[in-house]
Amino acid sequence: MVRDGSYNYGIKKILNRELKEDEKQYLLGKPFKALNELFPFLTNSETEKIIEETLDYYRKYNQNIKEYDGVKEMLLNLKQKGYRLGLVTAKLKQNATKELENTALYPFFDVIMGKEDCQDFKPSPVPLLQLAEKLRLKPTECLYIGDQPTDIQATHSANMISVAALWGEGKYERLSPLNPEYLFDRPKQLTELLS
């Protein structure tokens, strides 16, 4: 995942300033076009340079990405119970796949959808609906875990069960007002729910 550290590096290198906390939160999980939404004064050249620096930093440190505590155990448990698992991300599929391989989580997923697989991005429900179709599931049979407001919004619009993940980047004060069906602090809580 392109975390705020990657964006922060690119912003600092080109704009000579750090991202503020609300700016970090805004950019998390969004495609690069969010840079121009957040900073409408950027020229095309500046945007391209920020993206280039961000991706260089990301590529350099990508191998250091670790999964959150308990995630591997949760995914293993869900697969053993026969659940089909998919991932929707605004990243390129090859980048998401590399992260999953680096963390040994790749084998758990039946379908991985990157930004090239769908023209719409969350909060649109379209990526989630396409994922459900690829998994051969009805939306009402799906539970979607997310740590960003756009995840919860997309889940509601897709008529899926929403789980707000607070064990990583997710913040209670940002996700709770969106009324997810579940707010979990630990991956184990999802395992217990589906037992």
UniProtKB/TrEMBL annotation:
Keywords: Hydrolase, Magnesium. The keyword Magnesium applies. The keyword Magnesium applies. GO terms for biological process: DNA repair. One of its GO terms (cellular component) is cytosol. Gene3D superfamilies: HAD superfamily/HAD-like (3.40.50.1000), Putative phosphatase, domain 2 (1.10.150.240). GO terms for molecular function: phosphoglycolate phosphatase activity. PANTHER family: PHOSPHOGLYCOLATE PHOSPHATASE (PTHR43434:SF1). This is Pyrophosphatase PpaX. It comes from Litchfieldia salsa.
